[in-house]
Design goal:
The complex is a heterotrimer of chains A (about 220), B (about 210) and C (about 230).
Chain A (H helix, E strand, L loop, with lengths): L1 H21 L2 H20 L6 H26 L1 H11 L5 H31 L5 H25 L5 H27 L6 H27 L2
Helix pairs in contact in A: 1-5, 2-3, 2-5, 3-5, 3-6, 3-7, 5-6, 5-8, 6-7, 6-8, 7-8
Chain B lengths: L1 E12 L2 E12 L3 E5 L6 H8 L7 E6 L2 E2 L4 H5 L2 E4 L11 H12 L5 H8 L15 H13 L5 E5 L9 H9 L3 E6 L2 H7 L2 E6 L2 E7 L6
Parallel strand pairs in B: 3-8, 3-9, 6-7, 7-8
Antiparallel strand pairs in B: 1-2, 1-4, 4-5, 9-10
Chain C lengths: L1 H24 L12 H29 L2 H33 L7 H22 L4 H31 L12 H34 L1 H8 L10
Classes of the chains: A mainly alpha (about 220), B alpha/beta (about 210), C mainly alpha (about 230).
Chain lengths: ~220, ~210, ~230
Amino acid sequence: MTRSIAVAYAVARKDLTSEWRTRELVPALGQFVVLALVIANFGFQIDSQNATVIAPGVLWLALVFAGLVAFGRAFAAEREQASLEAMLLTPASAAAIFAGKAIAAALLLIACEAVLLPALALMFGTPFNAELVAAVLIATVGMAALGCLFAAMVARVRSREVLLPLLTLPLWIPFIVAGGQAVQVAMGASGSYNQAVALLIDFDILFVVLTSLAARFVLDD
Amino acid sequence: MSAIVAHEITQRFGSDVALDAVDFALDEGEHLAVLGDNGAGKTTLLRILATAARPTSGQLAIFGLDAVRERKALRAQIGYVAHAPGLYPALSAAENLEFFCSLHDVDRKRVPEALALVGLSDVARRPAGRLSRGEQQRLAIGRAVLHSPRLLVLDEPDASLDSDGPDLLASVMRGRSVVLATHDHALANRLCQRTVMLSNGRSLGAGTRLRVVR
Amino acid sequence: MTRYTRLVAAAVLLMLVAGALIFFYAPEDFLQKEPQRIFYLHVSAAIAAFACFAVVLGASIAYLRTESLRADRLARAAALVGVVLTTVTLVMGMLYAKPIWGKFWTWDARLTSTLVLWIIYAGYLLLRRLAEPGRQAARFAAVVGIFGFVDVPIVYFSVTWWRTQHPGPVIISDALPPQMLFVFLVTMACTLFLAAVMVAIRYQIETLTDEVPSPVVQLVGTQREPEPAR
């Protein structure tokens, strides 16, 4: 068990170090989400009245697309294939390697959220509070596990750009339903925040366990 | 003690037969050269021997263990240098090796030793992406021997190495069982005791030193 | 093929019998009138689709544990039939919704879950087509088949829960008088039989498709073109 944790830590650290040194993904994602907000503003005709009603939807749309890019990248690079194989040809378990990559990808998406959430509050005038941040962070965990699992799968398949959203989004729907509700309440709508977050935590646990079990079938031959 | 016993190894990709009932054997400490033109199936065979791929059919025993069922256990004893180096360009040469030390659960002290073995001590801190092709190949070789494997599987390692390549290979191969794929018959003669010649996925014959007159 | 011809004939006959019951035996619904008759086939198709995906789940788990080619074939066959039946369910659902609720689509838990179900298994079929045929396609599809099956009740539950926060159109209650219940059960049995026959036929087709490569290789043998470097 400690071996697995050590491996996951080493893999996550490796990915984050690479990203830090090349700074390819996070700036691009940050710009992307800000652009998404700009488009939303014109697409939805947002004013002070409807901002809190529309903002949650805009948040989740931006997050879903950013997530697809971030998790897709975790496995996509051509080079990754030869190096993924090199990792598998060690005693390290596929589940531990997968966990490391998913953790790193989640942290990169969280870095993007650190841009998205303040920008949303700034541009749409919606509340920015701990409940909002907590809901988004909790949802990110489960979404990262699922996104990375399917990204690992489609990395070796043709037409991966089309296939990744098709496979991943149906599994993200429960997170968006519960997360959407949580964010709406955090922004002032009526309803139960605690129930929504409890659901998110349940989903997180379920899918983290399932993806860990599935990892070795997807990564290894 | 036998290192490899391969019996009727076949690999199919859909309706395409990449390897057709290939047989050979290798004793511990021996070096085997796999010869053949491009497309003969050398890489396919080597990937199977490195447990990176599974054959469609056939039996493969490495150090007495079944290569498919016991592959996790075998991987700790096998070092593989693939066609593509598969290194992390943003990490330095030393960091690349340190990372694999964590995966192999091997002491980090091995890293300077491995770098010295392949002659990369000077560029230990340089990002792998900025190494020359020859240096990257040497780093990949260094990575393959980090965990002191009993079997080394090398896929055309001489392709990107420069003129002191054969000496490097000889020193790395010493004392281990080795399967080496190459075009270069002279190199094969120099470094290996046994050969297998592949053509169109079929084995044309296994034997001891092949003397080729050009 | 005569065995299959007989099975197909039996299935068609049974569906005609069910159809006759639906139109001539079942009473007209007090509130919904004639359109309610769609319900018999709509729900039967949904249940049959779900049964197919349960088969995909079982076959996928079996494949991951044993790598049995037969399990993989069964998963392929059942997934295709399941997608067809889900399409039928969705179309009928929309035809049902229009006269009852005035619009073709509502975001209630059942319709939404069925749509998600369709998307998941359409993705399953697409993945099979795009992945490297053989072990890789089978393994990946098995993982998708398992996750997909787990996801649908979760989506259903999420949307139902969401509806408690945002009440929407009320679903028609499922209580059925005896005559309607009888017709429904018969229709469901006939539809399940039809689904089973379709899966069996598809399984046979998949078996034949799997067997094709070998004879071709033996014929062509040594005269192949040199392949590019792998």
